[in-house]
Design brief:
With 353 residues, this protein is α+β, with helices and mostly antiparallel strands. The protein folds into 2 domains: 153 residues, D-amino Acid Aminotransferase, Chain A, domain 1 (2-Layer Sandwich); 165 residues, D-amino Acid Aminotransferase, subunit A, domain 2 (D-amino Acid Aminotransferase, Chain A, domain 2, Alpha-Beta Barrel). The chain is built from 7 helices and 17 strands. Strands 8, 9, 10, 11, 12, 13, 14, 15 and 16 form a 9-stranded mixed beta sheet that branches. Strands 1, 2, 3, 4, 5, 6, 7 and 17 form an 8-stranded antiparallel beta sheet that branches. Helix 5 packs across helix 7. The longest helix is centred in the N-terminal third of the chain and has 14 residues.
Amino acid sequence: MHTTTTFPIHRTGKSRLAGLDVNNLPFGTTPTDHLFIARYTGGEWAEARIEPFHELTLSPFALCFHYGQTVFEGMKAFRMENDKISIFRLNKHHERFNRSLQRMAMPEVPYELFKEGMRQLIALDRQWLPSGKDSALYVRPFVIATEERLKVKVSDEYLFLIVCTPVGPYYSQPLRVKVETEFIRAADGGVGYAKCGGNYGGALLPTQRAIEAGYDQVLWTDAQNREFIEESGTMNVLFLIDDILITPARSSTILDGVTRDSILQIARRRGLKVQERKISVRELETALQSDIRVEAFGAGTAAVVAPIESITFGKETYPCYVKEDAVMFAFKAELQAIRTGKVEDVWGWNEVV
């Protein structure tokens, strides 16, 4: 299809906004009034439109239920100081979305369709954007395979949707994490860098076991030797050790995090030394055993900056630095100031609606 900048809009007859409790926003539970939807058939995207939020009707034979062709993104929109709306780093999210689609043999979503569908949906539901501290409109674009066939194959038909939900903080307290040495999240040559459903489903069992043991998340290690740190839960992970910001380098097993990239750029602009490299379990434990100040935190769209208060290696647990003057909180504050228009957006990250 030839993408355009306007789509048919079918407005809801009755908004659910009046029932929203802005002081109680459990993450990812309350959809806004509308959704964006487009259909892929005959080798092109078509029928793009905005509709009242509704359930989907799919055949039990739809390939997405059986063979894993599902890809999603996680984004946020913010109410700015001037009451305009900013969609944070739309371009980079679109690039990552298409990389994930490529890896799963799914059709790419054209930039204009992605951008304008999102802009128009958010503009229509703009009253749903919360303005409280650490609140935002979480935006979820996703593509699913819908061809009706019980056969392992690349689907010929897909749906692309964008849905939104107002959210508060993802984590309310600093995290207690354990180094995972039994299960793995991803292996070289696999799909670890893609935001596909299977990546997250495979992490649920070890994460649940960690929660039952009293932890909040796990620190994933490499598949080959369980020797190097990779990610924390569903987030990238960063460490400030002896005034050096260290994070595992991007690879086929690590998600190219948008928040991670933003923090690294902020850190470099502040003059901080940044290293994107392998960091071993032994190196991290040795640093925590010393008198060196160690900050550890997860970074992701949902969690933003999630401070880690302790890390457990086997039977040994070590505290991390989480006091108010921690550098990670300065990163979070600057990131929030950029997204809400309190400071200049020197990188051009905000797509203003």
